[in-house]
Design brief:
Blueprint (H helix, E strand, L loop, with lengths): L6 E4 L3 H12 L4 E4 L24 H15 L1 H5 L13
């Protein structure tokens, strides 16, 4: 662990990892601590991992459609190639 950090995030699931990614992309030194043996091994592992675009709230619909552009170009968004296809959007 680094000797200093700007942010400590408890939980390395989808929410913790997402927050860590955004903070680090904005120059913050981030440490993620998780009780599980691997990233996403907690409650995230029990999710259905379905991305949908139909919601009852208009703002949520807009947010989902905006997020789709990041999913379609995931490696560009995270800045890392994924040759094994571990994180991908499947239509």
């Amino acid at each position: 662990m680094p000797s200093s950090t700007d942010v400590v995030i408890i939980g390395g699931g989808v929410m913790g990892a997402s927050i860590a990614l955004e903070l680090s992309k904005n120059g913050r030194k981030v440490v993620v601590i998780d009780k599980g043996g691997a990233p996403g091994a907690g409650s995230t592992s029990a999710s259905s991992a379905i991305i949908r675009f139909t919601y009852s709230n208009f703002n949520t619909i807009l947010m989902a459609w905006e997020a789709a552009q990041y999913w379609y170009n995931w490696s560009d968004f995270v800045g890392v190639e994924d040759p094994d296809g571990m994180a991908k959007f499947v239509k």
